[in-house]
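Input.
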Amino acid sequence: MAFRNLEEVFHYIESFTNLEKSGSLFSARTYRLDRMALLLDYFEQPQLSYRTIHIAGTKGKGSTATLLAHGLQAAGVRTGLYTSPHVTNYMERMEVLGSAPQVSTILDLVDQIRCVVEELPQETLEAMGPPNTFELLTLLAFCYFREMGCQYVVVETGIGGRLDATNLVNPELCLITPIELEHTDVLGDTLQAVAREKAGIFKAGKPVFSAPQQPEVKGELQHAAARAGCPIVFLDEQMRSFQARCSKEGTEVRFRLRDEQEVSYTLALIGEVQGENAALAHLAVQTCLPSILPALAEGFTAARLPGRMEVIRRNPAVVIDGAHTPRSVQKVLDTFTGLFGTEGVLLFAAAAGKKIAEMAEILAPAFKDIVVTTPGSFRESNAAEVYRAFKDLNQETTLVVDTGQALAHAQNLAGTDRPLLVTGSFYLAGEVREILY
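Output.
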């Protein structure tokens, strides 16, 4: 029976192994490219029907991808944007800018995908294992972008890069955002190992542009670029000046690159780090796509991304951000306190496997009142463990397991004049966003 709505579509796709949800450990059966290559063959390589820009890294991938995609759109290019995770619904991941989601097209494509999956030979399934949720989402997105006539698609990797389902694109250029330790069970437990996996997206002769990196990461990226035969440029080596000024409405950024005049942009995205993402996107565009450079200002102003320092209520402010690493929550905290002061309330949750103790050390001393909860039901979590980590550092920490009740309690603590920061997980950000919208 044909799919009738998007709820049925994504319920079907989620019925496969969902590595985002389960946090499954690395194995040759779960992370591999031959299965994705086979699926793309069945659909005649949709990812090769448009030009692509491929982005990997730990933090800032989604923001940088969004800025680039909106720059392309502002230049009159029909542009697709593939990001993850979503905050509210799966269609956020496969956006055709300037176009509402075409539900009938999605339904038809997933009908076709289901037929292909059901007809996979038994020997293939035994050798490779069945496809997983992220592979099917990626296949759907690549086919959808082709059906929608995209000329360019900006693609964010899921986990890592080398064995990521997105790594069968043939990009015009690649970008690497800041790299930290993450998914160590999958990518390795050193910065060099993680960087090596991220650099797996490099393609021979295709230029790479990187954000500033820690020395061991930079060295690994340079070695990988040399092996792949592609030029690599680091933003900090090109930067001659940089200033970012954040407000509750966005970010004003001004910078000068080597051999360039100073440029300035107004971003709707909030945070100094967003200015850095914009500078990286600018560097890539002025080097490889100079014809769209005049449109970047318009595109950057239009770019918005849910769950990234997003102000969803004012008076008092409610700010949501999906930060879930020590470095990212530090940046979020700095921006939040800079804009809203130090009297705020924190609502926090984290999925299992995150660096909870380190995040607690950063956040717990900065808030008078803290409410710990679960990040929804999508990912496994241990709210009691998170609560203990924060309670040890701040006695004014309470545990409210139900997310909706926790939000209500946090808002009650905030009253009419104290800001509320919601962070620690994109899944929590999505839950709160859905409740408040």
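The domain at 310-436 is CATH 3.90.190.20 (Protein-Tyrosine Phosphatase; Chain A).
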